[in-house]
Amino acid sequence: xxxxxxxxxxxxxxxxxxxxxxxxxxxxxxxxxxxxxxxxxxxxxxxxxxxxxxxxxxxxxxxxxxxxxxxxxxxxxxxxxxxxxxxxxxxxxxxxxxxxxxxxxxxxxxxxxxxxxxxxxxxxxxxxxxxxxxxxxxxxxxxxxxxxxxxxxxxxxxxxxxxxxxxxxxxxxxxxxxxxxxxxxxxxxxxxxxxxxxxxxxxxxxxxxxxxxxxxxxxxxx
Length: 222
Description:
Strand content: 5-15%
Number of helices: 11
Mean pLDDT: 91
Order of helices and strands: EHEHHHHEHHHHHEHE
C-alpha cells in the first residue's frame, strides 16, 4: 500500500520510481472509472481551469490563477496518469477501486463556484510560497509519524474519514487478491486510508488480515 498526498509536486516522478522498484503484478488506484474517463479525456483539467476563470470574477488574483492552473496541469491526478502509463508499458492489470459516488460528487463540484473562503486561501498561499511548498512535506511527515504512532493516527482518521469509501475499496481489493492468488498487488491512494484505526474503518484495518505493507510515497524519494 503506497500512501500519497494528492497535491505532491514531486508525486509524478516519485510514483514512477516507486512502481519501478515494487514491480507489481496488479495495480489498484483510488479512482473510479468515471473519474478516469474525465482525466484521460482532459475534461477534468478543463473543468478545473474553467472554474478558476470564473473565480477571477469573484476576486481570485491573476497570480493565484496562474499558480493553481499550473498545478492542475502538472500535478493533479498524477496517481492515475502514472499508473496508466506504467501498466501499459509493463502490461499488468490496472483496476480502479474508488466508490463511484465520490468521484461523481467531485466532478459535480467542479461545475460549482469556488467559495469566498477558498479564493481567499488561494490568494494567501500564492503570496506565501514557502508555506505552500511545505504543505505536502508536512502532510507526508504527519503520515509517517501516524504510521508508527497509533494515537496520532487515530487523530488524523477521526478528522478525515469516510467509512463507506474504504469499505467499498477493501471489497474490491480483497476480490482481486483472491482472483490473482500470490500475485504482488500494489495499491496507490491517499495516505489517510493506510492508517491504524481502533474502530476498524480504514482501508488498512479492513485488509489487515492480508498482511499488507505500508509506505508513504515520499519514502521512495532518492
